[in-house]
């Protein structure tokens, strides 16, 4: 399993940014190998978002990014935000505490 972590600093319209990002998420979540997605927004810097997506493997993620539907949806994102993506593997993870 791999995790894609993408820090996005919005310098344009936040609503337009979230609409484009929603279309990208919709496409990616329907692709083989996709496991989950989360989107975070900084409380201290509301123009900064962090997106995480878990994939079964790096090849599934690469295939999804090569699709025409992905490229169509990602068009315009660079006008609204500066993305800083990277791919990570989990080395350590704590289980959630209950109770």
TrEMBL record:
PROSITE patterns reported for this sequence: ABM
Domain ABM, chain residue ranges per copy: 2-90
Source species, domain of life: Bacteria
Pfam families: ABM
InterPro entries assigned: ABM_dom (IPR007138), Dimeric_a/b-barrel (IPR011008)
Protein name: ABM domain-containing protein
Organism for this UniProt entry: Streptomyces haneummycinicus
């Amino acid at each position: 399993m791999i995790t894609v972590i993408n820090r996005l600093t919005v310098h344009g319209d936040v609503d337009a940014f979230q609409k484009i990002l929603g279309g990208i998420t919709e496409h990616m979540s329907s692709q083989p190998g996709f496991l989950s997605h989360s989107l975070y927004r900084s409380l201290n810097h509301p123009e900064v978002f962090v997106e995480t997506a878990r994939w079964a493997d790096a090849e599934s993620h690469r295939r999804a990014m090569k699709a025409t539907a992905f490229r169509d949806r990602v068009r315009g994102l660079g006008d609204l935000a500066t993305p800083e993506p990277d791919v990570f593997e989990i080395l350590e993870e704590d289980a959630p505490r209950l109770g």
